[in-house]
Amino acid sequence: MTLKMHRDLFSRLESGRSGEITMEDTFSFECDARCMGRCCNTIKIMLDPWDVEAMARHLGMGGKEFLGQFCELEEDPHTGWPYVKLYEAERGPCAFLMEEGRCTVYPVRSRNCRTYPVGRAVRFIPEGGKEEKFFMAEKQAFCFGHSGAKAWTLRQWLDDADSLEYYERSDLYFELINHVTDVLQCRRWMNSRTAKMIMPFLYGPEVLRTKMGISEEAVDHQEFYRRRLRAVKVLLTEMAAGFGFGPAVKDSEGEDVEDVSVMEKVKDILLKG
Ligand code: SF4
Ligand code: SF4
After folding, report:
1. Is residue 151 pLDDT above 70, yes or no?
2. Is the peptide bond before 117 cis (omega within 30 degrees of 0)?
3. Residue 109 C-alpha to ligand 1 middle, in angstroms?
4. What pLDDT is stored for residue 253 in this prediction?
5. C-alpha to C-alpha distance for 30 and 38, rounded to whole angstroms
6. Protein residues whose CB sits closer than 6 Å to any atom of ligand 2
7. Fewer C-beta neighbours within 10 Å, C or N terminus of the chain?
8. How far is CA 5 from CA 34, 35, 45, 77, 269, in A?
C-alpha cells in the first residue's frame, strides 16, 4: 500500500464509508487448502524494506540480490517514491508459492501477507505520533477462509502472526515517506536518480555493512534498519534544502550542522546511531 492509499483509506474509515474494526471485535477465518493458495496468485504485493530484509536473510541472500531476482520497482506518480513489489505474484503465482498452495517463506512472509484478511491504515500527525485504523479486506469468492469456523478477536489475529512488530517497522518507513512527501515536498524535486541513490539504504543493508565495516554483532538488524531509515531522512532533507525545500538538517542537539558534508553525516548515523 502506498502512502496515498493509506491516506485515502484512513479518510474512508474515519468518515464511516468503510467499516472500522477494533481490537476486541471478532471474526471467523481459517485457511483451507482447497483454494491452493489462490490469494498468492495475480496479486500486487507491496514490500516494505523490512519485508525484503527478512525474506532475503531467510533465503541466505542479500537485499540487493533479492530485489534483482524477485521484485520490481513502481514509481509513485504522485511523489516519485520508489515502491517495491513482488514481480511474479502480480503476473501469476508468487515465486514463493508451492504447488500445493503453501508458502516457502511463511515464517518471514511480508506484512501484507501475514495480516490478510485484516488491513490497516495509518496517519501521521504533523506534531508527532500517529493514528491507526483496522478493517477487513473485501471478501474474495475464491477464498474459503471466511467460511472457516475458527473465531478470533482482531488482537488475537494480529498477535498470532506477530503483525504488530511488522507494523511498527513498516510505520518507520511510512513516517519517512510522509516526511519526504509533506515536509520536503519531494514531488517538486525527486527524480529517478534520487530514487536510485536511496535504494541501498532502504534495501541493501549488506552493501552498507560491507562498505562501512559494520558487523551484525556490533549493530543488530533492527537497530541498523532504524539507522538506515534515519540516514535516508538526513540525505533527502539535505537534498531538498539544496532545491530550496524543507528545513535545514539538525544534529542530535537540534543545532544546524552547516560545515559537515552530507556523506559525513550519513556515515555518522550508520556508525553511531
Ligand atoms: S510471499 Fe508467501 S504468502 Fe506472500 S504472496 Fe508469496 S506465497 Fe503468498
Ligand atoms: S487466505 Fe483464502 S485464498 Fe489465501 S490461502 Fe487462505 S483460504 Fe486460501
Report:
1. yes
2. yes
3. 6
4. 64
5. 14
6. 31-32, 35, 37-39, 116, 142-145
7. C
8. 31, 28, 14, 12, 31
